[in-house]
Amino acid sequence: MTEKKILIIDDEEDFVKMLTRNLELHGYDVEGCTTARQALNRVKNNLYDIVLVDFKMPKMDADVLIEKIQEMCPACEFIILTGFSVDGKVQAILETNPKVCACLQKPFEIKDLVSEIEKGSRR
Amino acid sequence: MSDKREKLMESEELYRTLVQTLSDPVVVIDVDGRIRRANKRIADLYGTENYNGVLGRQGLRFVAVGDRRKVVEKLREVFEKKATAVVEFGFVGPDRQLRDHVRDVEMSVSPIRDNTGEITSFIGVMRDISERRRLEEEIRIRQEAIESSIGAIIMADLQGKLKQANWSFLNLFGYNEEKEVLGKGFESFWTRKIPSNKIIETVHSEGMWRGELVGINQNNGEFFVDASISIILDVKDEPIGIVGFFNDITERKQTQEKMREASKMAALGEFVTGAAHEINNPIAIISGNAQYLLTKFDLKTMKETGSREFKKMKESLEMINKHSLRCGEITRKLLAFARGGEETAIKPVKLNSILNDVLSMVEHQLELSEITVRKQFGRLPLVEVDPSQMNQVFMNLILNAQQAMRKGGKLTIKTEAIDHNQVQVEVIDTGQGIPEQNLGRVFEPFFTTRQPGEGTGLGLAVTYSIIKAHGGDIKLKSKPGDGTKVMIELPVSTEP
Description:
The structure holds two protein chains of two kinds. Chain A has helices at residues 13-25, 36-45, 62-72, 88-96, 110-122; strands spanning 5-9, 29-33, 50-54, 77-82, 100-105. By secondary structure, chain A is an alpha/beta fold. Chain A has a single domain (5-122), classed as Response regulator (Rossmann fold), CATH 3.40.50.2300. In chain A, helix 2 packs parallel to helix 3 (62-72). Chain B is built from twelve helices and 17 strands. Chain B is rod-shaped.
């Protein structure tokens, strides 16, 4: 199994740090960033298997960000992380965008996230 | 002879003077019905200074056509009984074009007899009762207005004992006839929240009292009225009675109450969404870090050292993780509660099958609690709901019922179409019930009677917000010891 490359996008630095550690412990190659602009820069220069994205970013909502990343990296898969509930908007993205594999409500168990990552990258 | 003649002349003169001086119009009519004499006052009725035109004319000419038969019959009666009688008729002046010239007249008719006792003529003393008639009509219209008023109106004496009540008042308080309320005091109609004597005192001292009262009807039902009560003064400004005007505002109050409730819930929902989000992020970080350390322990430390110290540390981390996740569970429910106000994935569904799905999920649990389930499903039209939210609603209600029946019991789930627009679902348990003082609070977020950690106190709040968001209604009836009945009404799908 090749090491999967994961990008975490969340405006809260501690969250990114926490998740990075956890996922590294599970053997992933993880990078994190806290703004949409940083995220787009990273995607421009790197190839990620999976992007974990906070649904509510200060300057850009996840749906817009996902679209922009997809333009540059069509193979990329996404998992949405949200502090809100999985509402109609998230549901709509899950239903219409086949590259968006799942949405997890914060807080979540790391093993649930890992299993979603594995499910996602297996498709 | 000349003496007799003189006497006759004298009496004739006296008679004429008498007739002329009477302040009422007077006519003398012969037995053929012709007017032989009339006094000046007749001019008031006649409508012209020159009333000589009436002399020699048929009296009936001046009687309104519709009254002529009545007048003739009355004259016949006077003739036959030889006694005075009174008749009312419309007096028509010479100008028939002018309707004003019809006056309402009351005429007292007496026979005039000659010395043989034979009736030779009649004397009619008239009184113009047009003004009285007008006033009577005015009073009648005012009475009619009071009677037809949608607002309840009463009149009472100075002590507040009812002397008159209109139909609306009787209807509002559940009486059939006015006599049932006459003589009753104000205190018979209101709760004692505002004492009647205080109201009457204010009416006396300030001339009026306005406010809201809680009315009690014949069946002891309570309702809200907006009351305006004021004093009635006579021409000398002396108080002679009390008039009260009451409007039923029960429906308005209920609507206001509902709107207040709805906006309270909406504001709460908004607040809760924001708060939940703010909490979710930090607890995600807390639990995530705890999980990181736990994994680290599992991978390394635990293998190296099995000491009690490390076990304790691990246990502490497990607690941090477990309870942050528990916080997450609460915020999740809070968000679900707030979502009641959000757009939902509504589609026409079969409610009975949703209930069957939920029941099959909890079947085993109910069996373990020795709860028997009775389904009384009626034939239902499709309802417009968000199926996943409805699942949550019934799951909440059934689990609540289960918790109320710790020693077992019977759970009845009943569905029926109440009318073309609505269906009703009832979830009835035979559990411990809810004390009356808690009934009003069960839909409040975080209200729970369970032990800390046992329930979030959000189940019914979430249920309530979901049902309201669906345009439905939820009500709860409960009696401690007997059990609880939750009734839900949902609108029927408008799609065929």
